Amino acid sequence: MRRQAGPVKKRNLSPRPRPKDSLKLKVQAQIINFAVIGDSHVGYGNSSAIFKKLLPKAVSSGNKKFVIFGGDNAQAGANHGNNADAFYKDFKDTVTSTLGSIPYKASIGNWEASTQSLFKQYLGAVAGQMNFPGTQAKVKYVWLDCALGAFTPESMNILKNLDDHHYYIIDFHWPLKVSGITVAPSHVLSGAETNKFFTAIPAKVRDKVLAIFTHHGHLFYRKLANIYPGFPTTKFFVCGCSGDYKCKPNGDRGYYNATLTINGSAVTVNAYKVPVM
Fold first, then answer.
1. Are 143 and 168 a contacting pair, CB within 8 Å?
2. Partner of 86 at 20 to 30 A CA spacing, among 29, 142, 161, 205?
3. Sheet holding 209-214, edge to edge
4. Are 119 and 88 contacting, i.e. CB atoms less than 8 angstroms apart?
C-alpha cells in the first residue's frame, strides 16, 4: 500500500540574504591635502607682493586642511630688527586674510632668530607639537627650532619624548645633511647636528616618522627613502623659495602641494613642487 505523499513544500525562490556588502567592510582611504611654503622673506625686496600672489594659489586648490610655513617668513632681522614688527604684521595679515579658517603653523628661521619675542607674539611657539588637522590625532605635526644652525634643547627634548602611538610629520628651517643633497653646504646642518637629530628619535618611533620638511636652501630637493640608517621609509624635502630673497623668477619660486593618506593601517605622505612665476 502506497503512502500518500504529503503536501509539497514550495521552494523559497526569494534571493538569499546577502552578506553585508563587502564594500562596506572596506575602509575608504582618507586623503588630507596641505601645503608647505618656505622662505617668503616678507620685508625684503619684492617678497611681500610675490608672497601675496603665491599664497592664494597654494590654498585655492585641493581643499587644503593645513599650511606649513618653514621659517624666514619675515625678514625680521634686517636693519637690526628696526622694521621687524611691520614685517611680521605684513606676513601675518596676508596669511590670516588669505587662509581664513585653514589652520597653519610657522617654524622659526635664521632671519627671525634675533626677534624671537616678536615671532612668538605674531606666530606662536618656536617649537612644539600638535595634532595634524583632520587625522583624529593619529598623526602629529612637530615643529622645531634650529634657526641658528643647531637644534635647541627644547627641540631635542621634544624628539626624545616622541611615542610610538602616533605618526609624525616634522618641520624645521635648516636642511639635514643627507647623502646626495644638492643644497649649498653653507645652508645645510653639520653632520654632527644631523646625527644628533636622528639619534634623538627613539628607535621604536623611527618607522613612524612619515616626512621631514626643511627650507633655508632657496631651492627644491627631495629624497624619498633611506635618508639615514634606521629611517628607510621616511621622506625628506627641502622647500625654500616663496619670496624674493635669492629666488629666481624662472620657475624656481614655488611651494609644495602635499597629501597625507590614511588607508587602514598604512599612512603615507607625498609632496610635489608647484612653480610660481
1. no
2. 142
3. 128-131, 139-143, 167-171, 209-214, 235-239, 220-223
4. yes
Share of the chain above pLDDT 70, in %: 90
Which residues, listed in sequence order, are joined to residue 69 by a DSSP beta bridge? Answer: 37, 106
66, β-bridge pairs: 34
Taking a C-beta distance cutoff of 8 angstroms, is the pair 272, 256 a contact? Answer: yes
Evaluate whether 244 touches 54 at the Cβ level (below 8 Å): no
- Of the pLDDT bands very low, low, confident and very high (cuts 50, 70, 90), residue 2 is very low
Q: CA 146 to CA 108: how far, in whole Å?
A: 8
Residue 233 reports pLDDT greater than 90: yes
- Which set of grid coordinates corresponds to residue 60? 585655492
**Which residue in this structure is represented by grid cell 586674510?**
97
Listed residue (155, 127, 131) closest to 141, CA to CA? 131
d(CA 51, CA 254): 10
- Which tens digit of pLDDT belongs to each residue from 14-54? 555 555 544 444 668 999 999 999 999 999 999 999 999 99
Map grid coordinates 562596506 to a residue: 24
Helix 84-99 and helix 116-123, axial crossing angle in degrees, nearest 10 = 20
Helix (H, G, I), strand (E, B) or coil at 134: coil
With b for 16 or more beta-carbon neighbours within 10 A and e for fewer, the 23-40 pattern comes to: eeeeeeeeebbbbbbbbb
Q: How many CA atoms lie within 13 A of 219 on its CB side?
A: 9
pTM of the model: 0.90
Beta-bridged to residue 149, according to DSSP, are none
Cell of 242: 616663496
Q: How far apart are CA 243 and CA 90, in angstroms?
A: 13
